Amino acid sequence: MNFHTRKWIKPEDLNPNGSLFGGRLLSWIDEEAVIYAIVQLSNPYVVTKYISEINFVSSAKQGDIIEMGITATHFGTTSITMRCEVRNKITRKTILSIDKLVFVNLDEEGNPVPHGKTEITYAYMSIDSFPDRQQG
Ligand SMILES: CC(C)(COP(=O)(O)OP(=O)(O)OC[C@H]1O[C@@H](n2cnc3c(N)ncnc32)[C@H](O)[C@@H]1OP(=O)(O)O)[C@@H](O)C(=O)NCCC(=O)NCCS
């Protein structure tokens, strides 16, 4: 699993007890996962369908640096399933784990459409994957 995005825990990320607010972390994960899915499926129209049990293993506090890891575990016909782990970058202690995040590949009308992918790709996407996002 590659840990791409890092976050530095700031006062606005805390709950009233002074540790990282779970809702804030879930919002970061949802964004991290959708970016991963967009890249893997080469399609900007991807939505969150299902998130399995979330295990908040340990807390994070102000000043901690955390990192988020996502990896694809299954390519369905229109869906992609991923696993997520968040850990403290310095101590490597696990903060959260989610076994299954399922995202669905959509067409421009919002209907599920086969993505045709079967395995993780590491290649960088080109702008050709996103014709309607090109400038000019
Ligand atoms: C995403 C959406 C278009 C899918 O519609 P749908 O009628 O469920 O579509 P399907 O039944 O064809 O399922 C699509 C894929 O999701 C998978 N899926 C559906 N329900 C699932 C569930 N509960 N758990 C895991 N996977 C599921 C299906 O297996 C299928 O994958 P596959 O093609 O790889 O086999 C629709 O559910 C939707 O618009 N949901 C809201 C999405 C959203 O707004 N997300 C943001 C929430 S804040």
UniProtKB/TrEMBL annotation:
Keywords: Hydrolase. It comes from the Bacteria. One of its GO terms (biological process) is fatty acid catabolic process. Transmembrane segments: none annotated. Pfam families: 4HBT. The keyword Hydrolase applies. The keyword Hydrolase applies. GO terms for cellular component: cytosol. Residues 1-109 form the HotDog ACOT-type domain. One of its GO terms (molecular function) is long-chain fatty acyl-CoA hydrolase activity. Belongs to the acyl coenzyme A hydrolase family. This is Acyl-CoA thioesterase. It comes from Sphingobacterium corticibacterium.
